[in-house]
């Protein structure tokens, strides 16, 4: 397997894991910047036509792995793969953010729920025709969008 090397850094107003939004829904309007390393800047060509992008990143402050966790939106233990917990074996996160503009190797984004200084592993465009899934289900997670938007993180996943 080829090693994964970060392609940039994510900059956000969130300096601490505690009290962060737990998903982009809770970060509505929050501004951030994605600084892509100059060597990878040519890969940004044609990205400016997309309204949203996926950020794939490393949960770089996570130091442990748990296969069963109590997620933020529940009170009972769940298998880590049925959650968005950072305590997964490879500590990889994903967020969909709004792409505001691109200036050279700097992407200006909105609705970002990521810790400042997070290593960026990859960027992928959100494509509604590929990614929107009608009639999907969310397993155990029954919270409303409002409940998700209002929920903040705590120290359980340090």
- Indicate the structural class: mainly beta
Give the terminus-to-terminus CA distance.
28 Å
What is the tally of beta strands?
Answer: 8
In order across it, which strands form the biggest sheet?
1-2-7-6-3-8
Give, in order, the helices and strands: EEEEEEEEHH
Quickly give the CATH architecture: Beta Barrel
CATH class: Mainly Beta
State which percent range the strand residues make up: 25-35%
Helix content: under 10%
CA-based gyration radius: 16 Å
Family: Belongs to the tRNA methyltransferase O family.
Organism: Desulfotignum phosphitoxidans DSM 13687
Pfam family, one: TrmO_N
Protein name: TsaA-like domain-containing protein
Architecture overview:
It is a single chain. This protein is mainly beta and 158 residues long. The protein has one domain: Elongation Factor Tu (Ef-tu), domain 3. The protein is built from 2 helices and 8 strands, in the order ββββββββαα. The strands form 2 sheets. The chain has a 6-stranded antiparallel beta barrel with strand order 1-2-7-6-3-8. It is globular.
């Amino acid at each position: 397997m080829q090693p994964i090397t970060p392609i940039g850094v994510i900059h956000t107003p969130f300096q601490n894991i505690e009290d962060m939004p737990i998903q982009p829904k809770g970060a509505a309007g929050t501004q951030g910047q994605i600084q892509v390393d100059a060597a990878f800047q040519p890969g940004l060509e044609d990205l400016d036509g997309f309204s949203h992008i996926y950020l794939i990143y490393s949960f770089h402050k996570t130091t442990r792995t748990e296969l069963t966790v109590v997620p933020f939106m529940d009170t009972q233990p769940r298998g880590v793969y049925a959650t968005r917990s950072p305590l997964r074996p490879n500590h990889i996160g994903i967020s969909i953010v709004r792409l505001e503009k691109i200036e050279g190797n700097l992407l200006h984004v909105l609705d970002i729920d990521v810790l400042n200084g997070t290593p960026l592993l990859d960027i992928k465009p959100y494509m509604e025709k590929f990614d929107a899934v009608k009639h999907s289900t969310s397993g155990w997670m029954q919270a409303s969008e409002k409940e998700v938007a209002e929920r903040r993180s705590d120290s359980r996943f340090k």
